[in-house]
# Entry
Amino acid sequence: MFKKTVYFLAAACLMVCGCTKSRTEIADVLVLSRAEVAFSQAGGNAIIGVGCPSTWTAECNEDWVSVTPSANAVAISVPTNASSQKRIAKVQISAGNAAAAKVLTIVQSANMGVTIINAPELITLDSEVDSVYFSVDATAAWTVSSEAEWLSVSKDEKTGVVEVKCVPNEGEEDRVASVTVNKAGGESTSVTVSQICRANNPYFNYIGSYDLYAENWYLEGSAIGAPGIGTGCTIEAKEYGKSFIIKDLFYDGTVNEATYDKVEGTLSIMTGRSCLEMDHADGSFTIFYLAQTNFAANTLETNNVVCKLGTGYDEATDPDHTKPLKVLNVIRGIEDDCSFGLVGYFSANQAYGYFRDRYYAAGEMYFIARSE
# Structure
């Protein structure tokens, strides 16, 4: 009784609306159980119900989609998507009435595989304890492993972030290993990790005893017009990879700090800071500072002095350059017309000034490593 009532009302509605559809148009109405089918990267099969009282067809122009019609359904089959791009296809389902045609959309996920993100082709670590991070994107469960005992790996299950960490390389040679990410099913990808040895680490190469050679020297405020070595110092490690201690530069007992720039591979001697305090018998005291002095203008500057590792030769004893010497070239920080040395604060007259009995370096200058 209920169905008859519904059909009666529908018929009455058609009469009121003045609908003039033909029998063919009514017979060619198409109804799909779904308008879209989504497949994973692995592919699969799906059955879509088709309702139509007349003959209908199903076609797809994409060769990766297989379409098989039956009496009241269409079977869709999709193989594995080996590409890294999501793909979309349209299945056209038609009957005698073109206006009644339906489109079934097929979507398949891309093959993301195992992708390492935020990592270069070669990761370089320094000689000490060091670590680096990268992310992993995978379509299934995955593991990460290292082929070397000196290189450990761990992953964060929630974020997919991998930490790669090394132990110190105290040997005489750099070393290389691979870190591999394995996805369930056998697919894998890897990244190469290298670690320099301590002997090749620029930070440690700065450490040692040096003599400072300068193109010219000042004494008592006047240029003596002679190149040569006028002072020495020792460079010691302070905080690994960040700073050094420089002792006895221009005066025994001075202690200065230098910073290390790992990216540029440079050492910067900090000036303008107290490096020695000396008390005198009369109760006065003197505080020593590294600085630049312009004797002609009677001014002081406190620019840091930047050095970079290099190689030099003793032209007098080794004209054929067979015995390279380690040198620290002063590449910036000493302004024209300025000299490099110690200045003092003298409490007796409450003033700053230079020392008349100390030498000041000027012109081109570099530190020469002393022979062991």
Observations:
- Confidence is low (pLDDT under 50) at residues 1-19.
- The chain is about 5% helix and 50% strand.
- The CA atoms of residues 4 and 20 lie 22 Å apart.
